Amino acid sequence: MSRMVTAYALPWHLKESSAFHEILVQPLTNYGHVALQALPDGQIPAASGSDEAVVFCQVVPPWQDAEWRKRKVVWIPMWDHISAWPDARWSELPKTWRIAAFSEPVFDRARRAGLPVLRLQYFKDISGLPESSWQDGISVMYWNRVGMVRPNFLRRLCEVLNAKNLYFRDEVDPGYGKARYFDLPSQLGSTRVQRFPYTANRQQYEEQWSCINVLVAPRPLEGMGLLTVEALARGCAVLAFNAPTMNEYIQHGQNGYLLDSLRARWAGMSTTCFNRWWLDKCVPREKSRRRKALQGSLGLLTVVQDWQALRRLDLKQMGACARVSHGMGYQRWQQSIPLYADFVLRSDVA
Prior knowledge:
By secondary structure, the protein is of the alpha/beta class. 34% of the residues lie in helices and 16% in strands. The protein has 2 domains: 117 residues, Rossmann fold, CATH 3.40.50; 164 residues, 3-Layer(aba) Sandwich (Rossmann fold). The protein has a 7-stranded mixed sheet with strand order 9-10-8-7-11-12-13. A 6-stranded parallel sheet has the order 2-1-3-4-5-6, sandwiched between helices.
């Protein structure tokens, strides 16, 4: 008989994202039924007396609740969500809780805390995705989810890559607000700016992707990074912040390019602190007007890049390499699914 398991995720993941359908519900279809339910952040579900495991998808399980500490829990943490957790907090989790780790730092912290942990890496099936076209020149896509780059960076990048089009989505993630939002004019130099709005229509979605062959990965940290994963699978050249999980998929200069960031050298420094440090380096404090103008142009990735190296990139070859390596990764993902299903669905915790 097929096993059933309840899985909790944020409402956003049920309405706007396919992430947990792709990495949990679909892979386990042949092994059991996963009932994905919305759980607002901070809300604690009732802990029933069932002996079945309950899965928490990104949502932090109620680790301080006495009843839940007795339950069989499988947690799928996303690195961008829990990167600030100290080792001490990991150590407080019940040692019977299982961790499905889709990034190396999550795997490392769970292992150090003595928790049962399974390392996984998700890849898409490239056979179901059309390969990126390069016939009409270079078309870049950037979704401004968290304000990782600013317009001046995009302008310089498009100039260096000689990009014909920039496909731009301006919807910031929940909680980021006006400080990270910006709009773009219809032209950045000689590059035409076109909109890439959200659509649930599959045909429209494919039409959007058919125009794109370069992606600027939108966030500095990812739990997995579905947009980046899909771009690699389609054979796009991906330019990404040098941090998990992007640098777990990308071999720099081969199947993608890891952009330089001074902040990457101080991984613990907040964006605000880094920007203040960078301003101090660039502009004396007494030049307040100049500092204010510069501050508005700062993202996580600044215009301090090796632009000559970017100009020399064979983007088409990089995209082709990305698609081939992703195809090999998909085979590994498929081979890991039986072990994944057992890890999630089994009743014991050994």
